[in-house]
Design a protein that fits this description.
Blueprint lengths: L2 H14 L6 H17 L1 H12 L3 H27 L2 E3 L9 E8 L2 E5 L5 H15 L2 E5 L5 H14 L5 E3 L4 H8 L5 E5 L2 H14 L3 E4 L5 E4 L5 H13 L11 E5 L3 H15 L14 H10 L5 E3 L3 E2 L4 E2 L2 E3 L17 E7 L2 H9 L6 E5 L3 H10 L4 E4 L20 E2 L4 H7 L1 E8 L15 H11 L1
Bound molecules: nicotinamide-adenine-dinucleotide (NAD).
């Protein structure tokens, strides 16, 4: 029996003892996790800076603040979320009570991605804790310092039978995926998502897959150009474009193309991105640096384009006059390269987007309400924003997740609680009334009554 098997066995014993189920236990664990993060912020900032030079400001704003808000939301609502929900009883079953009981799924595995290592690892963990599960967390090995600090903090402060961090890469994750979990929660790329889904199928394990894709931003002539560009440029180059819901490419209406490009150039200059200004990060590793560098077509570059392999630096780069069939339009970019496509007919844009895998996000910048509705109705995507980008992820009342190739299931707030719960439906009968209609011997009179009741 390998170590992982014995871990899952001991977590199963704890879970089956009902130890993790009381609301008081869940609240205590969430409170403990929050205090642990708060008391160790300095080490968390240092680790993430060592991984890819992410600053304290951005780490707080895009990772820790979201985690604290998720914990606070869970602490405030956990009693409500865990309550039995009473529903109507149909005539055929009266007299009876009908209700739904949320119950934890059991022993769960969370696999994290590196690009927002704290948020994407602990976010699902908070949901799993709130729902009363035991947890094994496997952070991404690509962000090795953050993986190490998460392992150190959790493994010295939590009982491994309840919550354990296992570090590692493909070998370790493959071994973990072979085990019969009660729930798998994966954040990462589409190809690895398919591996996870296949592994889960062997044990009929329920999965949530938070994947990626090419998320479009559509900019029409009647948008507020200044605000659009301010929000769009920020959303694209935050974390050097290494954000699953970053606008992957922009489709801009031809009549404002020149003004849009000028505004983007000015905005990038105004934000003054650099490591020294603590508002820009490194590309996570050499593989990704090389992949992104190869996508830069100097003939199309209107801003940036310069790179430094030793520093894993790629400047915020805008590529103009891009077509739907260019190399950069094939796969998710996941880096600081922004292709601009110009359009004259919005219907053609919609067709192009719909011919591709369903994106994780879609953004439309326009004051045209009819067009807003048209985009939201005609294009299928995980979630998004009108006249903004990225910020929908920060509202825990909005379930977050993809559709089709960008993922399945969702989380944040109550959606996260639901992702880690089973909803058990119960019909509760008293003994004091029995119509005998359903029991043999059957008769025409009984059948007529049943027809009246059931229809
Ligand atoms: P990745 O798929 O390479 O890695 C994710 C996790 O899977 C890591 O923990 C890694 O160790 C593990 N893994 C990698 N290869 C594996 C294999 N062959 N078998 C088993 N496990 C394996 O993704 P990444 O590079 O960490 O993240 C980038 C991708 O994740 C992008 O596509 C991005 O859009 C997506 N993403 C999605 C979200 C979301 O919330 N939807 C958030 C962040 C990132």
């Amino acid at each position: 029996m390998n170590n992982y098997q014995s871990l899952i066995n001991s977590q199963t014993i704890l879970f089956n003892s009902n130890f993790t189920k009381p609301i008081t236990f869940r609240i205590a664990q969430l409170t403990k996790l929050k205090a642990l993060l708060k008391n160790n912020e300095k080490d968390l900032y240092e680790a993430i800076y060592n991984d890819f030079k992410k600053s304290e400001f951005e780490t707080y704003a895009t990772e820790l603040a979201i985690l604290y808000a998720e914990i606070n939301d869970a602490l405030k609502n956990i009693k409500q979320w865990s309550k039995r929900k009473y529903v109507k009883t149909n005539l055929a079953n009266l007299p009876a009570l009908s209700y739904i009981i949320p119950e934890p799924l059991g022993v769960t595995l969370v696999i994290g991605a590196w690009n927002y290592p704290y948020q994407l690892s602990f976010g699902p963990v908070i949901a799993a804790m709130a729902a009363g599960n035991t947890i094994v967390l496997k952070p991404s090995e690509l962000a090795s310092h953050t993986s190490a600090i998460m392992a150190q903090l959790i493994n010295t402060n939590f009982d491994a039978n309840y919550f354990k961090v296992i570090e590692g890469g493909v070998t370790e994750t493959t071994a973990l995926l072979n085990l019969p979990w009660d729930k798998l929660f994966f954040t990462g790329s589409v190809p690895v998502g398919k591996i996870v889904y296949q592994a889960a199928a062997k044990h009929l394990t329920p999965v949530t897959l938070e994947l990626g894709g090419k998320s479009p931003a559509i900019v029409t002539a009647n948008c507020n150009l200044k605000e659009t560009v301010k929000r769009l440029v920020w959303a694209k180059f935050l974390n050097a474009g290494q954000t699953c819901i970053a606008p992957d490419y922009v489709v801009v209406e031809a009549s404002i193309h020149d003004a849009f490009i000028d505004a983007v150039k000015q905005q990038i200059a105004d934000y003054n991105y650099s490591f020294e200004n603590n508002n820009y990060v490194q590309i996570i590793n050499t593989n990704n640096f090389n992949r992104l560098s190869a996508l830069i077509n100097n003939k199309q570059v209107v801003v940036g384009g310069n790179t430094d392999a030793a520093k894993r630096y790629i400047a915020p780069t805008v590529m103009d006059n891009v077509s739907w069939i260019d190399n950069i339009m094939k796969d998710e970019i996941f880096g600081p390269l922004l292709p601009i496509i110009t359009y004259t007919n919005i219907n053609e844009v919609i067709i192009h987007i719909k011919q591709r895998p369903k994106p994780l996000s879609c953004y439309v910048f326009t004051n045209d309400c009819k067009l807003q509705d048209k985009i939201l109705t005609e294009i299928s995507f995980g979630g998004g924003a009108v006249n903004d980008a990225l910020m929908h992820i920060s509202n825990s009342h909005l379930p977050f997740g993809g559709v089709g190739c960008s993922g399945m299931g969702n989380y944040h707030g109550e959606a996260g609680f639901k992702a880690f719960s089973h909803y058990k439906s119960i019909l509760q009968k008293p003994f004091w009334l029995e119509t005998n209609l359903k029991y043999p011997p059957y008769s025409t009179t009984k059948l007529n009554w049943i027809k009246k009741i059931l229809e």
